[in-house]
Give the backbone structure.
Amino acid sequence: MIPVYEETFHHGLNHGTLGCQHFCSDIETLNRLHNKFEFIQFAESIGIEVPETILAENIGEIESNLTENHILKPVYSRFGENVIMNPNISKLNIDVSKTNPWILQERLDGKQYCLQGICKDGNVLSSVAYSSDFTVSKSSVFFEKTGKGDLGGIIEKVALNCNYTGFLSFDVILGEDGTVRPIECNPRATSAVHLYATQDGIDDAILNGDVIQCSGTSRRLVLPMWINLASNLFKKGHFRNWRRAVKRSKSVEWNVFDPRPGMLQVISLLGFAMVALKNRISLIAATTYEFEWNGK
């Protein structure tokens, strides 16, 4: 079994119990990396430089520690959902408790990158990095290799110290001084998989442990890219950069030789819209609502 999305955690929970191999680590390892506070503690313990991160289990702990240099986010979250970039204590309306803890995290200056590694038994078989230049609701919708690979050796350090198997992803900030600091870990696949070409042989890495290189072309999510343009239409230089990005990239969804994924995506979108309306959540949150892992 090769889980790639939020279902990874449920495979980790049943690791070694279903009579087949799982291309993921056990749930204890996955949860330690997915938990945004525990991950920072773990990363610091193995020598990775990290931003100041404070655990809050009630609103009082936020009030007593919050400064203008902090952002807020739940310990368990994804896609940038519920991240508060400029928190105002007098206007906060969030549920903070021992069962739903949040973190205050130091705001870092620099450029954000997304890293992804393919790992097996603690060895990194492939790594790729892309920048977050075009986003919708804080999630990247344009994917282009930067050539930086495993920035700061973070994938290698974490994989080695966890004896990690599976896809291993990070959001990191590259400071002007060259220091790379992770802000969170996603112990599953991300959109970086779109950057791999068929001939790169992801299957050889997963099944045989082969070391491979990522050689695919830049990719974009068509509809979200248009949403990104509409949201930044009056931002100076954005349309020029957007047009260049579209010209040098290929669609993730649409392929003239295989139109079915693009067509069926519309059906999926309708399903997610119904979930979002029923539960009064965002469309992005609806994509994982029924099976997301929040510690259990």
Q: What stands out?
A: The mean pLDDT is 90.
